[in-house]
Structure formats: C-alpha cells, structure tokens
Amino acid sequence: MATYDLVVIGTGPGGYVCAVRASQLGMKVAVVEKNATLGGTCLNVGCMPSKALLHASEMFEEAGHSFAKMGVSVSSPKLDLPAMMNFKQQGIDGNVKGVEFLMKKNKVDVLKGTGKILGTGKVEVSADGKSQTIETKNIVIATGSDIARLKGIEIDEKRVVSSTGALSLDKVPGKLLIVGAGVIGLELGSVWKRLGAEVVVVEFLDRILPGMDGEIAKQFQRILEKQGFAFKLGAKVTGVDTSGKTLKATVEPAAGGAAETIEADIVLVCIGRVPYTDGLGLKEAGVALDNRGRVQIDPHFATSLKGVYAIGDVVAGPMLAHKAEDEGVAVAEIIAGQAGHVNYDVIPGVVYTTPEVSAVGKTEEELKQAGVAYTVGKFPFTANGRSKVNQTTDGFVKILADAKTDRVLGVHIIGIEAGEMIHEACVLMEFGGSAEDLARTCHAHPTRSEAVKEAALAVGKRAIHM
Ligand code: FAD
Ligand code: NAI
C-alpha cells in the first residue's frame, strides 16, 4: 500500500497549489522541498521580493518627484536601504508562513530534503546525509527553474549578480550594467534606477521585451529612456574583467564588429531562466527531457514514466507563477479523474515597472505572421479623465480583434495599473467575447479601466472621448 496518493517535488507556486488542490479532492498528499523555506523561486527570490522592492522604490521616487506638484510639500526623502531590505524580508516571511499555514490547513505533509525519483511510485528524500524512501501512487515534478548563465562570465552574487544578488545589494551601485532587456532587467533596473543608480542595459536583439507587442515595447523604451535608462540594443556582453575596483565589461555588436568596454560597479546577468532538474534522477528513472532540457509532458502533464507528471517552469511554456499555479490545479484534477485544463491562449503577462505593461493573447506581429485579418482599437490615457486628473497619462490600451467575427484575440496595455486592468480582457477572452461585448459593458466612471472600454469602442471606430 502506498503511503501517499500524491507526492509533489518542489513547493513553488506550481507545487504548493497542486498539493492544496489535490488535498481538496480527497488525496493524501506530501510535498518535498530542499530549500529551507517553502514557496520556491516566486516567494523567496522572485515575484514577491522584486515586487516589494518595486513598491518601496516607487514610493521613494514619488516622494522625491511627484508629491510637490500635488501640493504635498515634504523634505527630500532619504534612503535607508537596510530598512527597505527589511521591508522586503518581512514580505517574504509573511508569504512563506502563509504557505506553511496552507500545508497545515490542508493536511499536507512537508518533507524537508532533496527529492529523487527512483521509479514509478517511489521518491527518495535526502537531507543531512540521511535518506528515506516514500511510496506514493502519483508524483508531480514541480522543481522550477534556475538562472541562465553566460559562458565565460562567473556570477559571484556580489559584483556580478543574477536576480537573486540584485534583490539583496547592500548599497546602491553608482553604475549598474544589465545584460538582457527582458522582464527581470527592466523591473530590477527600475528599482536601482529609482534609488539612484545609473543604469545601462545591453540587449542582444534590436528591441526590448521580446515577445511583447512591438508597438507597446517601442513606447515603453521611450518612457524608460525618459526616466534615465540607457539602452544598447543589438549588442552582447562577451566578458567581464573583475580584476580592478571597477568592473570592465566587453560589449560587442550582436552581428559582430569592434568591441567596446563599459565600466560598472555591478553587472546583472538576466538573459532568461533554464529548467531545474538537478538531483532528480530523471535519466536513471526513465523520465524524458525535450531538446531544451525541459521535462517532456503530454497534454495531460504526464511524463514518459507512468504515474509521474510535471508542471511549472520545469516544463514548456511561459515561466510565470500563475501559469505554474493553473497547471498545479489542472494536474491535481486530472490525477483525481477530473478534466483539468489550462487555456494557454489566455495567460496574462505583466511587467511591474512604472508604467506597467500587460498583455494577454496575440501580439500584432503574431497575427500578421499567422495571416489573420484583424482590426485594431487603441485608446490613449491622455484622453482618459481619471488619468488626466491624476496626471498619469503615459501609455495606451490596444485591442486586436478578428476582422470578420470581432472576437478579441489580444489586448495590450501600457500605463499605471495595467497589471490590474488586463483581467477584464482575460475574462472576456476566456468566454470567447467580442470587442463589441466589451464596448457595451458598463464601466465605472472615473476609472482608468474606461480606457479599455474606449479601446474596444475604437475597434468599431466609435470611441467617444477621442
Ligand atoms: P519554483 O518557484 O522555481 O519552485 C521550485 C521549487 O522546487 C523550489 O523551492 C526548489 O527549491 C524546489 N526543488 C527543486 N528541485 C528539488 C528537489 N530535487 N527536491 C526538492 N525540492 C526541489 N512570475 C510571475 O508570474 N510574476 C512575477 O512577477 C515574477 N517575478 C519574478 C521575478 C524574478 C526575479 C524571478 C527570478 C522570477 C519571477 N517570476 C515571476 C517567475 C516565477 O518565479 C516562476 O515562474 C515560478 O516561481 C515558477 O514556479 P514553479 O513552482 O514552477 O517553480
Ligand atoms: P527574459 O527572457 O524575459 O529576457 C531575457 C533577455 O535577455 C531577452 O531580451 C534576450 O533577448 C536577452 N538576451 C539573451 N542573451 C543575451 C546576451 N547574451 N546578451 C544580451 N542580451 C541577451 O528573461 P529574464 O528577464 O531573465 O526573466 C526570466 C524569466 O522570469 C522570464 O521568463 C519571465 O517570464 C520570468 N519573470 C517574470 C516576471 C513577471 O512576470 N513580471 C518578472 C521577472 C521574471
């Protein structure tokens, strides 16, 4: 008799959510975690600490630059970095405790140690030189991802850092060189820029935020440049000389050509993340990987080994916490004999900068490439009443709809609170709604969300306030 119905390896947003859902469905569940705390990358060194620092640094920036124009006169704010880091840590601790509470509440056993799959139904858990073998009917691999490294550049997490080191710097760097203009580079670049660093971003491609709608990315780049970001696009860092007091990075055009040297106090390498499968014993157990080192799964999250499933960053798809969570719920339901499902066409993405960038569905570039005939409705925040009174008018809403059926295929927003505003588009798209459906839905006034309604009206060329 197996001890458990389900053992989940990893307690990030994929793993712990899967465990809770499985317990709700009546399974006896254990989670295995090698880290000292639960919650995975997201809670410990990812989503949550970065959002705490983004919030705190934004308040610092606002107090210094935006209060006066509203008639709020304060003396120039002073940065207490250790206190800000403490604020971040309190946020991490609170969330980690929350996951511990959820495990208890749902009667999920927490097994501390490194999990290794010995075969169908068998997981070895090792900690402090001791190991035990757990028997279980089903196993879910939710071991997440790790930072991608650049050949020849050693990350010491002090001067040459990954996101983990960049979330815990003990002083504001004079100059921060960021390799990669993706989500991490722009979010953590924003944090340190607001706190006083000079920020230079080197990006391999000729644009920032690959994967996001091109028009949005262009406007975003202009806004970031106004904030003081410097971008070197179409370029790559090929080495960092750490011998002197100041770091010397060698930067070459991506297409080849003469190299230049950029000096910096800190270099942040954020060129993506890779699936994490170390120590899981997958090869020996017979769990196949795909050509990019991700655990290979079928449409029901089943791996090549019977009774073993995988979800989250360790499998294909966007490396996002909410994608991992939804897969955790779906796989638990499938194991319980239900019809668990994730709609990969409606997974929102948000960049939590100021302004925020959010998106769901197809970009204009993707529709063009697929040969889909589409209509575009756009509405700028400069024409939205609430944004005008708050003087937060940067950005716009863009809606892409099928030219024939009017079904909404993609929504892209750049602007303050874009990350909250995207969800009405998600609900609409989940129900296969049209731009007209959105345009005829009453929106409270005065809200920034009225810009979403106006963009939907603009698809039918009948925006009111423009
Ligand atoms: P993880 O969260 O990586 O968790 C995996 C867990 O498995 C870890 O706790 C690990 O210790 C454990 N583990 C691994 N191997 C073993 C083993 N053999 N035995 C036992 N335990 C093991 N996503 C968003 O959606 N929004 C954001 O704002 C956001 N911000 C981010 C900011 C940063 C700086 C970073 C780095 C990432 C961010 N992400 C964000 C991405 C997000 O963190 C991941 O998509 C998410 O954590 C993936 O969840 P997961 O459960 O698949 O894996
Ligand atoms: P990313 O994939 O978002 O961006 C990496 C960038 O680095 C790309 O623009 C890429 O073209 C560039 N690049 C790659 N190699 C390079 C090189 N040699 N030189 C210069 N540039 C190079 O990856 P990032 O920012 O590291 O984030 C990792 C993951 O974490 C992402 O998949 C993201 O989904 C997730 N994340 C999500 C957040 C959110 O949802 N708000 C926040 C932070 C991370």
From TrEMBL:
Residues 347-456 form the Pyridine nucleotide-disulphide oxidoreductase dimerisation domain. Disulfide bonds join C42-C47. Its cofactor is FAD. Its EC number is 1.8.1.4. Signal peptide: none annotated. NAD(+) binds at G180, A181, G182, V183, I184, G185, L186, E187, E203, G272. GO terms for biological process: 2-oxoglutarate metabolic process. Keywords: Disulfide bond, FAD, Flavoprotein, NAD, Nucleotide-binding, Oxidoreductase, Redox-active center. PROSITE patterns: PYRIDINE_REDOX_1. InterPro entries: Class-I_Pyr_Nuc-Dis_Oxidored, FAD/NAD-bd_sf, FAD/NAD-binding_dom, FAD/NAD-linked_Rdtase_dimer_sf, Lipoamide_DH, Pyr_nuc-diS_OxRdtase, Pyr_nucl-diS_OxRdtase_dimer, Pyr_OxRdtase_I_AS. Pfam families: Pyr_redox_2 (PF07992), Pyr_redox_dim (PF02852). Gene3D superfamilies: 3.30.390.30, FAD/NAD(P)-binding domain (3.50.50.60). Binds 1 FAD per subunit. Coiled coil: none annotated. Residues 4-328 form the FAD/NAD(P)-binding domain. Belongs to the class-I pyridine nucleotide-disulfide oxidoreductase family. The active site is a redox-active disulfide bond. This is Dihydrolipoyl dehydrogenase. It comes from Bradyrhizobium sacchari.
